[in-house]
Write a structure and sequence with these properties.
By secondary structure, this protein is an all-alpha fold. It contains 2 helices and no strands.
Length: about 45
């Protein structure tokens, strides 16, 4: 790839990361992840 292609790919990756962070930091997703992790940890100890 050329330098321009690397730049476009890097910008696309950064944009995707920003969107992903916004989704993960939302209240509903954070609550769901907390529930999943809590359930997994509690089921593993029984």
């Amino acid at each position: 790839m050329t330098t321009a292609e690397y730049a476009v790919g890097t910008m696309a990756a950064v944009a995707f990361a920003v969107v992903l962070m916004a989704v993960v930091k939302s209240g509903a997703v954070q609550s769901a992840l907390t529930t999943i992790i809590t359930t997994a940890l509690s089921s593993g100890s029984s």
